[in-house]
UniProtKB/TrEMBL annotation:
Family: Belongs to the ABC transporter superfamily.
Span of domain ABC transporter: 8-233
Domain of life from the UniProt record: Bacteria
Molecular-function GO terms, alphabetical: ATP binding
UniProt key word RNA-binding: no
Cellular localization per UniProt: Cell membrane
Protein name as annotated: ABC transporter ATP-binding protein
Keyword ATP-binding: yes
PROSITE patterns: ABC_TRANSPORTER_1, ABC_TRANSPORTER_2
Species name: Agromyces lapidis
Keywords, sorted A to Z: Antibiotic resistance, ATP-binding, Nucleotide-binding, Transport
Pfam families cross-referenced by the UniProt entry: ABC_tran
Length: 294
C-alpha cells in the first residue's frame, strides 16, 4: 500500500436485513495512519458497517475498499493485514497469556515479539497466568494484544474499554497512542465520547443508518455547537447564561458590574459528548426513544 492511498474507502454503503435498512448510504474515507472514531447510539448501524469492512458480512449496495481490497473478496493475505478486537472475545482459555500470544503469532507472516506486546498492554506480571484467571479488564487487554500481535496495518477496536476502571482506560489509551505513533490506522467505536476526543483524529456520527456528521474530532457538530457558555447568579440569586465567542470579555464585564465575582460563575465549553448528544437527538428526535423513563 502506498502512503497516499486511502486505508478505508466507503461509498454509499447499504445493508438491508429483510425489510430493515440497517445502513442507508454511508460514505467516508480513512487515511493511512489516521485514528477514526465511528460514533452513534445502539442500533445505529456501526457494527454492521464494521463487520462489512472486516469481511464478515455481505453488503446490499455501495462500494467498499479496505487496504485496497474489496472485503467481500479479501483472502487470507488481506486478513493478515487487519487486527480485529471484537466487542466480546470471551478469551477464557486455560493457556497462559504468553502461550496464547505465541500461538496466535504463528498465524502471521511478520508478527510482533510476544514479550514486546505483553509489555505494550501492561500484562508483564500476568504473562504466565492462565487467561481464565485474569480480571475482566486484564482479559480485555489480552484481546487487544491478540489484535496487534500480527502487526496489523489497520486495527478495528470495537468498544475496547467497556468495563475498564479509569486508570486502566488511561493506560489503554497510551497503548493506542503508541500504535498510532508506529503508523497503525485505527477504526474505533466507543460509547465513551471522552475516549474518542482523546484518541481520534476524525469521527463519523451515525444515527439510524445514516451518517449525520463527518469531520475532524474538533469540528464535529459545527462551530455554533462549540460556542462557550458563561453562567452566573446575580445578587438576587437569578441564573444568567450567555453564549459567547469571547467568554473572557463577558466574565470581566459580569465581575465589574457585580462589584466582584458573582456566585456560581463558570465558563462551560461543550464537550464532545454534549455536542454528540445534541446531534443525535436532533436527528432521531423523540420518535425513537430507546429507553423510556419511568
Ligand atoms: P450498532 O452497532 O450501531 O448498535 P447494528 O449494526 O448492530 O448497530 O444494528 C443496526 C440495525 O440493524 C439495528 O436495528 C439492528 O437491530 C439491526 N440488525 C443488526 N444485525 C441484524 C441481523 N443479523 N438481522 C436483522 N437485523 C439486524
Amino acid at each position: 500500500m502506498t502512503t497516499n492511498e486511502t486505508a478505508v474507502r466507503v461509498r454509499e454503503l447499504r445493508k438491508q436485513y429483510g425489510q430493515k435498512t440497517a445502513v442507508d448510504g454511508v460514505s467516508f474515507d480513512i487515511s493511512p495512519g489516521e485514528t477514526f472514531a465511528l460514533l452513534g447510539p445502539n442500533g445505529a448501524g456501526k457494527s454492521t458497517t464494521i463487520e462489512i469492512l472486516e469481511g464478515y458480512r455481505s453488503r446490499t449496495g455501495g462500494e467498499v475498499s479496505v487496504l485496497g481490497i474489496d472485503p467481500a473478496k479479501g483472502g487470507l493475505g488481506w486478513k493478515a493485514r487487519l487486527g480485529i478486537v471484537l466487542q466480546t472475545t470471551g478469551e477464557t482459555g486455560l493457556v497462559t497469556v504468553a502461550e496464547q500470544l505465541k500461538h496466535f503469532a504463528g498465524f502471521y507472516p511478520n508478527p510482533r515479539d510476544v514479550d514486546e506486546v505483553i509489555a505494550a498492554v501492561g500484562l508483564e506480571a500476568q504473562a504466565k497466568t492462565r487467561i481464565a484467571k485474569l480480571s475482566g479488564g486484564q482479559q480485555r487487554r489480552v484481546d487487544v494484544a491478540l489484535g496487534i500481535i500480527g502487526r496489523p496495518e489497520l486495527l478495528f477496536l470495537d468498544e475496547p474499554t467497556t468495563g475498564f476502571d479509569p486508570e486502566a482506560r488511561r493506560r489503554f489509551w497510551e497503548v493506542i497512542r503508541g500504535l498510532k505513533a508506529e503508523g497503525t490506522t485505527i477504526l474505533l467505536t466507543t460509547h465513551y465520547l471522552d475516549e474518542a476526543a482523546q484518541l481520534a483524529d476524525r469521527a463519523g456520527v451515525i444515527a439510524a443508518g445514516r451518517l449525520v456528521d463527518l469531520g475532524g474530532i474538533d469540528e464535529i457538530g459545527g462551530a455554533a455547537a462549540r460556542v462557550p457558555l458563561v453562567r452566573w447568579r446575580d445578587a438576587g440569586g437569578v441564573l444568567h447564561e450567555e453564549r459567547t465567542h469571547e467568554p473572557g470579555r463577558v466574565v470581566a464585564a459580569v465581575v465589574a458590574s457585580s462589584g466582584g465575582e458573582p456566585d456560581g460563575l463558570e465558563v462551560i465549553r461543550p464537550s464532545l459528548e454534549d455536542i454528540y448528544l445534541q446531534l443525535v437527538r436532533s436527528v432521531e428526535g423523540a420518535a425513537e426513544p430507546e429507553e423510556v423513563l419511568a
